[in-house]
Specification:
The chain is an alpha/beta fold and 172 residues long. Helices cover 38% and strands 20% of the residues. It has a seven-stranded mixed sheet with strand order 2-1-5-4-3-6-7. Helix 2 runs parallel beside helix 5.
Length: 172
């Protein structure tokens, strides 16, 4: 009986560890047109994905997404990367997300996480919080906050992921 219980506990812990290293697939978020979708829509045909949690009121978030905007087209051509920007704006400010993104000319997939379910599932505490996901849906790197020029480090990680090279331990 003890062996069975120990085995079940070990399997449960292994499942938790695995779940925290992959992007949850069954969390409901909203597309910019207001339709509800599952996070399983966040895919890129085996190529790298950047998932950036942000908010309209977050100055570092906006600086990071604007800095990436300047080089995003080149990043896509060189690595096939896709950036998915997930706004954590609540119901009061969610109506500002689309005009904000359009005004900044962001050519990213943008979703709303008004209830912050996806944010919790990804263990995001503060924004900006940026993840790099490999083609298998595994989180291979992450960082919080933003300092000017940090997008260069992000791109180095994306290039390694695109080339199938290992990434050193994920940053926080």
């Amino acid at each position: 009986m003890k062996r069975i219980l120990l085995t079940l506990v070990c399997l449960a812990l292994a499942g938790i560890a695995t779940a925290q290293n992959t992007v949850p697939q069954n969390v409901t978020i909203k597309a910019m047109d207001g339709t509800s979708v599952q996070t399983s829509v966040i895919q890129n045909d085996g190529k790298p994905i950047i998932i950036s949690f942000w908010a309209t009121w977050c100055k570092p978030c906006n600086r990071e997404l604007n800095a990436i905007k300047e080089v995003y087209e080149n990043w896509q051509k060189e690595t096939g990367v896709k950036l998915v920007a997930v706004s954590i704006d609540d119901a009061r400010s969610a109506t500002r997300v689309k005009p904000h993104a359009d005004g900044n000319e962001w050519d990213y997939e943008i979703y709303l996480d008004q209830n912050q379910d996806f944010k919790r599932a990804m263990n995001v505490v503060n924004v900006p919080h940026t993840f790099v996901v490999n083609g298998k849906g595994e989180i291979v790197w992450q960082h919080t906050s933003y300092v000017d020029g940090q997008e260069e480090e992000l791109y180095e990680v994306v290039k390694k992921v695109a080339a199938g090279e290992p990434i050193e331990e994920a940053a926080e």
